Amino acid sequence: MALVGLCIWAIVPIQQKIHLGLDLQGGARVLLQLQTTPDVKTITSDVQNQVELVVEKRVNALGVSEPVITKVGTDRLLVEVPALKNSDELERLLKESAVLDFKICPPQVVTRADGDKKYAEQGAKDGGGAYKDCGPVVYTGAELKSAHPGFGQGGEPQVDFTTKNPTKFATLTRDHMLQQLTIFLDKRYVSSARIEGIISTDGMIHGTFTEDQVATLANELNAGALPVPTTIISKDDVGPQLGKEDLVKSLYASIVGLALVLLFMAFVYRLPGVLADLALFVYVLMLLALLSVAHAVLTLPGIAGFVLSIGMAVDANVLIFERLKEELWAGKSLRAAVKIGFQRAFSSVFDSHFTTIVGAGVLYVLGTGTVKGFAYTLFWGTVFSLLTAVVITRFFMDVVVDNDLVTSKGAYGAGGKLAAPGPLAEVR
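-> structure tokens emitted (428 positions)
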């Protein structure tokens, strides 16, 4: 009951907690081609990551649903923005280059920006917030040559950077010694570091960073320093009506399929089937809660993976319940049949689920676009399916059997068949 309550809390209200993809609620889709420049002769994965970071920040400024940005090959990005009505605005934002500014900020402004996200990002909307409360721009991203993650002498993560204008940066650091040099990307507060020495060509930013934070900060610095031009190869608008029709049809198919599965389990396996149906509802709540907590975007292929994993959950119960009936037909007591049935069916259940998990994992790692959505729901759906079959359904069965709530073998689908003859019993 605690698990169910936690899941319901995570997904309510479901309209706000579950984010729908472009194909289900309409929006805009743009395919970007990254172009080389004299300074950037090859589009590497690092450059691709930098452009992806800038695009994500710019699209988020539109205030629409979370964008889905997918790498296509080594030099393209597919940008999908659900619920976006003005695709021209998206195109304008994607064509702009990032603006990286360095300012000297008072300590109280830095402290407030570190703790107040709204205040830190206000500059992107109206030029206010932390961006306004700091001094003038003293250095720009165009004057920064490169930045990359590194490690200090004690092995702590840090950002190493190189400037294009050593004389200007040396003057800047000398005149503002021990003050806070603050970084703004498109007028959004990124980070702040205290100037501890005169820096000309090479410098470092160190502190209590994790490796992931260092990589993110280096990408943000590079995003302003190494913008590469992009060309829009294709641009598609998905109407909200088409997305709504797809959503209704897919939900209808899912409900009908789930209902047929529930009826089949109850009719064929009687009481265990009903208990499996209850466990299936818990499974659905768990998967929806995961989508909500992980801020995953649910697409039409994602729903397909969701429904397919429901079939995996039922398949596990079928293996277990058939084994249970065999043990009852062999003359085992109800408690013994339940225990042995789950134990002996576990290897087959685990093997079938594990192979699907591996396949879904490979699809997610190597796939792109909507293939990832399908693989994501199939992967976690199969994991939860295994958990549901061997833990939750088993819990329900133990509650019924240990308390002698239902003792008739017929209620477990094993009525009307005699025990196996002697020789077979000896082999068993």
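Confidence is low (pLDDT under 50) at residues 418-428.
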